[in-house]
Design brief:
The chain is 43% helix and 17% strand. It has 248 residues and is an alpha/beta fold. It has one domain: 3-Layer(aba) Sandwich (Rossmann fold). A seven-stranded parallel β-sheet has the order 3-2-1-4-5-6-9, sandwiched between helices. Strand 7, helix 6 and strand 8 form a beta-alpha-beta unit.
């Protein structure tokens, strides 16, 4: 049987790019989303198992993993935690509801799904590889990103701690920390004349594409990264490490 990956937040742009790359690499796919209608058209194209569940809750996360076990008989070889949202607002204008939504979408989904996955791997005595999605804003201060930075900072801490706990069970846990990737979620940022300014922030001279993040996740899920765990890998065009040369 081919290995398979469970992808959360599967109706999003990063998840779709990842699913196509994994399919091309001959992985089977299980895709989970709260919205079956948004998932169905392209999931059928990839011959993927479709799961409708809210993985921001313990019961929803467990139900997604149970559906995988029922279909494939073993836990996923890979888990990609792509569920999430973003919030760009200064701290003093962030409402309690906005903060809670951000926390639920980014941290709760990662925590509960990883918990359910690890529990299943341990019960079946199987190794595994999980990849979480952080953000460049958890690694360097960016104006008006306080809520999402806090949530993604917690995702990074979860990655390192869980990697330490389960390394001796053969379960690898890593994360990527992308810069801005153009996708349906971020398209609203690309207003008139903004594209050039956004690209200029990055030393490599361009903003990201979802394929950039998907390529990194594919590598972390694969055996090519079998000696890598507990890492948060920046995929940000140099944004968090170097400054671009500015020309007058």
């Amino acid at each position: 049987m081919k290995p398979y990956t469970l992808i959360t937040g599967a109706s999003g742009g990063l998840a779709q790019a990842l699913a196509r790359k994994l399919k091309a690499a001959e992985w089977s796919l299980a895709l989970v989303s709260r919205r079956h209608d948004a998932l169905a058209p392209w999931a059928q194209e990839l011959d993927a198992l479709m799961i409708e569940a809210d993985v921001s809750t313990p019961d929803g996360a467990r139900s997604a993993l149970t559906a995988c076990l029922s279909e494939f008989g073993v836990p996923p070889a890979g888990l990609a935690l792509c569920a999430g949202n973003t919030l760009i607002a200064p701290l003093h204008r962030t409402t309690a509801e906005q903060y809670q939504d951000c926390l639920t979408a980014n941290l709760d989904t990662a925590f509960y799904t990883l918990q359910a996955y690890i529990s299943q791997c341990l019960a079946q005595e199987k190794p595994g590889s999980a990849v979480l999605v952080s953000s460049v804003v958890a690694r360097i201060g960016v104006v008006n990103h306080e809520a999402i930075a806090a949530c993604k900072g917690a995702v990074e801490a979860l990655t390192r701690s869980a990697a330490a706990t389960y390394a001796n069970k053969g379960i690898r846990i890593n994360a990527i920390a992308p810069g801005l990737m153009r996708s349906p979620l971020t398209e609203r940022l690309f207003v008139a004349n903004a594209e050039k300014q956004i690209a200029a922030q990055y030393p490599l001279g361009r903003y990201g594409a979802v394929e950039d993040g998907a390529e990194a996740i594919c590598w972390l899920l694969s055996d090519q990264s079998s000696w890598v765990t507990g890492q948060v890998i920046p995929i940000d065009g140099g944004f968090s490490a170097i400054r671009p040369m500015l020309r007058a």
